[in-house]
């Protein structure tokens, strides 16, 4: 399973999420760091991402040619100008259009209120995402078992 983590600035959210992801799954998943800038990408690589892409051109290249099983990022990845202007129209459009699961981390900023998320800590949000990834991996394993011939 390939999980892309998209973040900008210093990648504080991406960094912490990747640490949790790698601790939970070790080598069962491949984590791709998509940093809108070099610092964000490097910080996510230091946190355990397997490979990184930096800037609009590389992010667009990755998302166009290698659709991940899931993408994770703060709500700003869905809108042009998100993450303090670091998300371009191309990136936002590609993320929204991807044929994969999108785990969007709600941040109650910029007047955006998402009911049901106000009392969740970042730790709880990460746990909910990780639990869903576990379920997806379990289903993948069951599909492989059902489709492989018996000995």
From TrEMBL:
Database matches in InterPro entries: DUF3842 (IPR024208)
Name listed for the protein in its UniProt record: DUF3842 family protein
